[in-house]
């Protein structure tokens, strides 16, 4: 980005602010992915006793959105510390693709799976959601360990 | 043998050396640690929010706590196992790190919290959360956020500089 000097970014000037943003990023990940995982476990048939996946989804909806908003916002703040390094990293691009897939899956197939009776297909929807979120986290971690990462 | 020597010996065992030097295993263990924080930490968060009366208010407290207990316990075991692998492979650096020590102390506090509020978790009331339940939820939330924050700050503590600053402040006689 022309005219943008990353050295002026407050997160690059104050190490503690960077670390705090990372803590917010991980805590909001726990809130969003954690709430989605509750629904996933329910779709897999190992959820809360007497609670349907649809009811759990309604109870977690606002918390999930709050978590996703905080996670994306803190993620953008971290991205702004060195956009070129993140943008050109293949591992980071994989992470972003997985994140996008996880969010899209959550609001499409995941929702559809909750409408009918539990079947092997609805269980698969839960398993795929869990796998997408875990892969996103793995992508983020492996980015830190690839050349051009941290 | 001093604690420092022992930690160095642990770091240099064949097992922990192979964990540390593996280009795949070390980040995999770290990623698994974080995945457990996200999924099972999310369950702890859900329980705390229910104890505080902020979420799942239409679901009985006993259902929220009872349905997730085994998953949280399993997740905790995996999370700790990964933590041991990560800490052991760099134990000589970690044992002097104040954030690592604080993280361990906070995990002990989490254990004490479980004992102190055992009644809240073992026989939860069906009605609105009591003051004791709210105290249990908020304290758990604070402790786990503290564990998370200390865990992240471990990476930002620069041992040689910090020790150098200490020597500047208190020069050896």
Q: Which blocks of ≥5 consecutive residues of chain B have pLDDT under 50?
A: none
What string, H for helix and E for strand, traces the elements of chain A in order? HHHHHHH
Radius of gyration of chain A: 17 Å
Structural classification of chain A = mainly alpha
- Globular, elongated, flat, extended or rod-shaped: what is the shape of chain B? elongated
- Helix proportion of chain B: over 70%
What is the terminal separation of chain B in angstroms?
24 Å
Structure report:
The complex is a heterodimer of chains A (about 150) and B (about 170). Chain A is mainly alpha-helical. Chain A has helices at about 10-15, 15-45, 55-80, 85, 90-105, 110-115, 120-145. By secondary structure, chain B is mostly helical. Chain B has one domain (about 5-155). Chain B has helices at about 5-10, 15-20, 25-50, 60-90, 90-95, 100-115, 120, 130-155, 160-170. In chain B, helix 3 packs antiparallel against helix 4 (about 60-90), helix 3 runs antiparallel to helix 8 and helix 6 (about 100-115) runs antiparallel to helix 8. Chain B is elongated. The mean pLDDT of chain B is about 85.
In short:
The complex is a heterodimer of chains A (150) and B (173). By secondary structure, chain A is mainly α.
Can you tag this structure with a few keywords?
heterodimer, A: 150 residues, mainly alpha, 75% helix, elongated, B: 173 residues, 9 helices
SSE blueprint:
The complex is a heterodimer of chains A (150) and B (173).
Chain A lengths: L9 H4 L1 H29 L9 H27 L3 H5 L2 H18 L1 H5 L6 H25 L6
Helix pairs in contact in A: 2-3, 2-7, 5-7
Chain B lengths: L2 H9 L2 H8 L3 H27 L9 H28 L2 H4 L3 H19 L1 H5 L8 H23 L5 H11 L4
């Amino acid at each position: 980005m022309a005219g943008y000097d990353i050295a002026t970014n407050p997160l690059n000037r104050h190490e503690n602010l960077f670390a705090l943003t990372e803590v917010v990023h991980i805590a909001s990940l726990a809130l969003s992915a954690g709430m989605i995982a509750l629904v996933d476990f329910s779709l897999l048939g190992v959820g809360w006793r007497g609670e349907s996946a649809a009811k759990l989804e309604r109870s977690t909806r606002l918390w999930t959105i709050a978590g996703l908003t905080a996670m994306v916002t803190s993620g953008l703040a971290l991205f702004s510390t060195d956009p070129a390094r993140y943008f050109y990293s293949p591992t980071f691009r994989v992470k972003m693709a997985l994140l996008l897939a996880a969010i899209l899956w959550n609001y499409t197939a995941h929702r559809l799976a909750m409408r009918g009776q539990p079947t092997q297909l609805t269980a698969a929807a839960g398993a795929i959601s869990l796998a997408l979120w875990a892969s996103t986290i793995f992508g983020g971690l492996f980015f830190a360990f690839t050349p051009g990462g941290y | 043998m001093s604690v420092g020597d022992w930690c160095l010996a642990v770091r240099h065992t064949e097992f922990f050396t192979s964990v540390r030097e593996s280009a795949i295993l070390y980040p995999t263990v770290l990623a698994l640690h974080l995945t457990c924080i996200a999924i099972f930490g999310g369950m702890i968060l859900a329980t705390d929010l229910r104890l505080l009366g902020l979420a799942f208010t239409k679901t009985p407290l006993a259902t929220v706590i009872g349905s997730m207990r085994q998953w949280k316990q399993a997740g905790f075991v995996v999370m700790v196992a990964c933590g041991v692998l990560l800490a052991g492979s760099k134990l000589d650096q970690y044992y002097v790190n104040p954030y690592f020590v604080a993280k361990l102390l906070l995990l002990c506090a989490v254990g004490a919290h479980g004992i102190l509020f055992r009644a809240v978790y073992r026989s939860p009331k069906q009605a609105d959360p009591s003051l004791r339940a709210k105290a249990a939820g908020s304290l758990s939330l604070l402790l786990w956020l503290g564990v998370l924050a200390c865990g992240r700050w471990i990476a930002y503590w620069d041992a040689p500089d910090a020790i150098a600053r200490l020597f500047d402040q208190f020069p050896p006689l």
